[in-house]
Records
---
Amino acid sequence: MRRLAALLGVFIAIFALYVLQKSLPTYGDITSPIAVSGKTGKKVAARNFELTVTQLRFARNIQLTAFGNERSYGTSGIWAIVEAEAAARNETVTLMSAAWLGADGLRYLASERISNAPALLGRQQLEPGLPQRVLMIFEFPESEMNKGTLLVARYPFQPLDNELRIAMDSSATLLVNDQITLERGRSDADWSIEAK
Amino acid sequence: MSERRIFWGSLAVLIVMIPAAIVVRGYDSALAWRANQELYPLIAEPGKSVRYGGAEWRLEGLYQLITQDKKSAYILAEFEAKIDNPEAFAAGACQIALTDRGEKRWSPQFLPPYEVRKARPSLEERSTCGGATIKPIKVGETVKMAEIFRTPVDITKFDLAISQATLRPSYLVLR
């Protein structure tokens, strides 16, 4: 009986070690950003900032009017234009990382093609107590429109800081506009967006 | 020595050694963290000056300019430093923030907004806190500085928090 109990103890120890080995997180898991999940239309708060996605639009073309010039930006895929309201929580921040995570796991960083577009998230100095309307523009294949997730963080590679993961409810917005017009006014806060 | 005594002895050593290993491994990181924090304020009451980093610092004035949309305000902080040790004054990059005497901190605007420049043309004669430390300075010179912050309109009590990398965790508070 005693020998059987000892044998059982050894097997339990081996099993426990196996479980520990299999469940051991990798270095990447330990140091990856801490995800904060949310939905479109709801305020999602990270440690340093908060963000509410107010509208998602898709378009085949973006027309930009800025500094007296008009320019058209086409794409072989699709443009996704995300409007949001963002604010810092306790100290001034700039959110340098925005990405669209497709349903198949591919990640598309915010486009830098339209660098003159107004209110681009990465160019805004967000202040505590002052929510600002911001824009994020992505360019990706049409197949990535459905069930995307918006990822927003303070820096592209910041271990152990928050990363917002906002499920983009694109079922109601699968309408693809022929053109979205962005117009930049005289100040940073003075801009408009119109879909055609 | 009995098996029981070896077991309890080993356990006691483990209880001492694990925290000791954490302290030894984390000591440098803790020092580096501390050197980057603003922990010990040197407070200058209104109109008074305080010595910090090779200079006597004094807040000259805080001005509020409500923006056109009435939702936010620009706060212009004008302050000066009378230099008695130029090397110490320029030793570390200046870090500056406006605080509400609570948890909230606003960083300065990168470029002076048009409305503020129009309302206060003399702003061009002043440098920013960071810009002041890279210019050649003589002993006894008074450096005039200004920074602009954008805040909500309903905040009425402000402090200016200034720190230099080489002097943290001590920092300066101009009331």
---
Amino acid sequence: MTTAIPKQLKVALNWINSELGNSPDTVTRMFTPSGTDSVSVGVVYIEGLVSMDTVNGRIIHTLMDAPDLGDQKPLNCDGYFRFLKEKVVSVGRIAELSTSEEMLTALLDGYTVLLIDGCTSALAAQTPGGAKRSVEEPSSQTVIRGPKEGFTEDLGTNISLIRRKIKSSKLRFVQFKIGQVTQTDVVVSYIEDIANAKIVDEIQKRLESIDTDSILESGYIEEFIQDRTFTPFPTLLNMERPDSIVGGILEGQIAILVDGTPFVLLAPVTFNRFFQSSEDYYQRFDIASFLRIIRYGSFFVSMLLPSLYIAISTFHQEMLPTTLLISLAAQREGTPFPALVEAFIMELTFEVLREAGVRMPRAIGSAISIVGALVIGQAAVQAGLVSAAMVIVVSFTAISNFVIPSLSMATASRLIRFGMMILGGTFGLFGIMSGLMFLLIHMAGLRSFGIPFLLPISPVSVKNLKDVFIRVPKWAMTTRPRLISDPQSSRRQAPGQKPAPPDADHATGGESE
Amino acid sequence: MRKQGARLLASVMLCMLLTGCWDRTELNELGITAATSVDKIGDNWIVSYQLIIPSAISTLSGGGAGGISPITVHSTKARTIREAVAKSKLESPRQLYFAHNRILVVSERAARYGLSSLIDVYFRLPNSRETVSMLITEGSPVRILRQLMSIQPISGQGVQQIISNESRSYSLLPHVKLYKFAMNIVGDARAGVMPEILVSGSPNVDAVNQMGETNQPSRLKLGRLAVFKSDRFYGWFSQRESFGVSFLTDEVNQASISFNCGGGSDQQGGMNSAVTLTRSQTKVKPHIVDGHLQMEVHVKSAGMLEETVCTDNLQDPKVIKRMEGSIQKEINGIIMAAWEACKRDKVDVLGFAGAVHRKYPKQWKRMKQNWDQEFASADLKLTVDFKLERIGVSNKSFKSLEEPEGE
């Protein structure tokens, strides 16, 4: 359903105003540019979406200062339109609009629309602006060494952050508008010839099939396009750091940028990807590998420690060293609840504290830590409600949860923990093993855009193992991860780049002779 | 799909109901036993338990008030061992838990009766460990359990540490675990050994307030070696004989041996030097010579000089050779003492039967009918090889410096 732009300027401006509900931020202005006395021009824009400097300086000012048309006047509509487009409006991106709907969309996208009395087409000049946050250090994924910039809510800024890092003509940005009401810009970014074309198609297909009112955050997109909903594990990675995203793009992954959020999605991802931090590649490979193993360990600790404690202390006491058993038993003397109940109380208390910490106003933030530390740390033990060992278990579990670089994977382990606790408290280690087996089977069945979730381990891909549990030195990573990137071009860098000192005779020649 | 999920959920939920009375036990429902003893009086087995009181231990380590005994001992009596254990439910608030039981003390009376039922209990029940250390005592074993130990508040654990340390660094008495004992008495030799534990001195120290003194009137101590034929107690070996048994069964790790360095006429002929054995290996080779059993035993050991008052030049290889010779003689004597004791009692605690069985499987069939006799009439061909590898950080004996001609 399209309607042509009304010929009469006044009618057109009134139509726009009424369509937008006479919104106070809509500015419509009608004037006669200099150099002509017969043509009326209307300028329409939405305040807050445009940059006032551009509108005033590049459009209104130039219109008013337009060069004299001389003997060409009076111009007809088309002539004047072309004159405006080619000589007057000094803005980079310009579009010709022929329908009223297009006009509205352009306005809402932050364009300034120029209408000419008597014309049925309008000119839209991109004058982006409005309030936006500047590029800051990401708050959720911090590193010690590495770039300190983070994505912002502004799509254009985010694209530029990626573009600035990859100066390749092969870098592609494909734009979608998703959300019937919000009309959110979603951009898919990848490098042609590195990304697997099939996966790019699949992602585009899934994005196109989204039919919803609104996309306010990349989480909306994630839920619509992920391979499986009923799983605790995320199958898309979200990142706030341009360097991580660019790293992924360079390995053949595909980024999905959503306007209005600094969290950019990356797909397809495998399980190990959630344990990689961009810092791994900036630090020396030995410490990076060590930290990565620590992260995997922490994931299991955060998932299993309370359940193991419950299982061992209620079913398998023979597994503990005698001295430890005695000290645990001494602590359990006088605690009123079974270990399972105790663990649940403590874990839930911690979750409450954690959630409170996130929701609480900054100003009273320090209060929560004091109350939390005193309540679950000391008072509960002294009052004999819980044993000291349980406090240690719960706090270590909580701390190790924060080691996992990806928050969504950390959340997964948090949820699984409770299931494991029930299993450990009812079936002992047997229950925990069964639970882990169930998880493993489940994970082996997961796919992320067709890529097996456990990829380098199951199915085994020896070449991909260079960056899973350990990170091999940069010069040894000669190929891109198999299956994820384009199968035709797997070469990442030239082999044999291991640095070595110059030949012995060359180096010591001066000294020995 | 949904129906399936519901079914799965229902079955999991039903499982949850089942587990309510399973073997889940909270830590504060356990009576952790550190030591157990078994005695037999008449028809009745008397089983005693040394239970750990965790809260008392933690106040002890916290330097708290003290005054509470870290252990508590009680005994039950019944016609079978497990019935006796079950009877403890009549008096103990906690469920007895044997997985951390460190020592098992049997009385000589029980050992004379036979330990088969005890071993059966240990092998049959899943939560009792076959790695428990076995000890034997004369008289009532409850005395051992009630005796308090300084330094180590849980005496059961303490005794186990004593025996395992001793067998590792002194090798006089072997560390006998239940499974090893059981394997030995059902092995070819059908004989086993067990170290003795005793309370030396009197009266017993069984109250915490007695622990305040620096020296207790009595303490737990390892004694002789008990010898078993099949599952029954047979007799005692002295510590010297037991040391020889350790050599013959290749269980010497480290040991201390005193000897006379010889040569110097100024010595009184007593022991004036000591070495520590750093390693020792025993090889046993049976031979049948003219239908007669001959055991060839070769002991190869090495050690370090730890003490001497010999004035000889220790850097002279001849002196070292001579010293090695007298150490070899000493070891030889120790081993021969054990061999004589074994022959005396006609009990093959040396495991020679297994060696013969392996080498002469055919002849073994005949021999095993009358193995004790065969064993007693066997010859021992013993060669001892000792190498003094180090003489410590002092080249000369201090004694030699005292001599006027010394520097």
